[in-house]
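Entries read chain and fold; for instance:
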Amino acid sequence: MLRRLHEWFSTSSWTVRGRVNALHAKVDRLADAVERLQAAQARDDKRDLSGKLDRLAEEVAEIHGAQKQDEKWKSLFRRQMNSVIRYFYLVDSDVAAPHALAGRRFRLRSQNEEDGIVLALLKAGALRTRRFVEIGSGGTDGNSGVLAADFGWSGLMVPASAKAASESPS
């Protein structure tokens, strides 16, 4: 009987002790809920932070790729401008034959400015046909690529490797 009375006294809303115990229970439930919310928020923050870091890494990679591409285009532009300057200052000068030929070099499709040299050699020679054979043409069609693409020549291009053959645009 005493046990029942003590239990009623501890849990009844009619007594101060019962109300205090009920408030303690509510506070404990609220504290547990707050802890669960904080833990969930921490997990979400970590996931969100991880996602943000991934997106930031992707943006940095894009910027780095764009910078590399920009440097490539700047380098190509510098070389082309050097070719124009070389042409205007060296073509009409009294430079000996091998050096005069080197002064005509420029790059449109070749790897190392051979396009201008090939065109200068063809201009100097008396050719009757507009045909060529390119052995080791590579992925950009080599030194004869400019002849085929820009001057209407036709010919045979043989790549040096299987990889170059699969990358060849023609």
Summary: The mean pLDDT is 79. The beta strands are 131-135, 154-158.
